[in-house]
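Field reference: sequence -> structure
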Amino acid sequence: MKVLLDVNVVLDVLLQRQEWLAEAQSIWDAAETGSLDYCIPASSITDIFYITRRFVGLENARKIVGKCLQVLTILPVDHALLAQAQDLPEPDFEDAVQIAVAIAAGVEAIITRDESGF
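Structure field:
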């Protein structure tokens, strides 16, 4: 099953955010075992790097991105998908991009903490 992970779920694990860590860790563990095909848009990798660099420094942010590249399937984002996202009625463009990418990739589910965004 192909599942898109919202960037916040990924960051919950990688930054060990205690409030959501238990649930996010079980999701990440399923990705590492290969029991599910977890995906994120390529644009989320830059977000992950930017956010983690602020919290854990450059070297650790690079390691975190490397871990994402090992464990997750990275879905392409191109002009056509950005245009599709722009046309969605979603007020948050980042969420709209994730939705457009998920549709294009045939993703069966999105895992997020932001129920209002999806």
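Note: The chain has a mean pLDDT of 93.
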